[in-house]
Amino acid sequence: MAYQAGYIFTEDESPSPTSIPETTDEGEISNSLDEIHPLASTCLSHGELTRHDHMYLTIQIEEQFVTIPENVGVNSDTCNESGANMHVVHTHSSDGKLHLEMQTEEDVELGVFFDVWGQHFDENGIFDYRVNSTHELVMFNRDVNGTLEEIDSFDNYILLNNQDIIISYRERA
Question: pTM of the predicted model, to two decimals?
Answer without folding.
Answer: 0.83
